[in-house]
Amino acid sequence: MVEQRPPEQRPPERPDVVDAARLRPDLAAVDALARAQLAARRRGRRVVLRSPSPQLRELLDLAGLCGVLPEEASGRGGVLEVVREPEEGEQAGGVEEVRHPGDAPV
Known about the structure:
It is built from 2 helices and 4 strands, in the order βαβαββ. The chain is α/β, with parallel strands linked by helices. A 4-stranded mixed beta sheet has the order 2-1-3-4, with helices on one face. It is globular.
């Protein structure tokens, strides 16, 4: 018989790492990162940021999300590429969808 442990007693999984070094520090990036974290948590995972700019950190702090989107503590985890599809009538730019670098183009 396999014993199931409650979530708080399970070993932590490696986080999904978002390389934030090239993200434009704007509200679209903050929104996309918050949505990525929410989606990850719904799957029982979490997102951490790698190399966010000081400006992006300030925006996350202003939005109250610094505790929700922590910086990477180590070099482990799967790296995610954050991209955004422009909406109708909108110029390309910003961030919204999270894809793994090996995923096929959409």
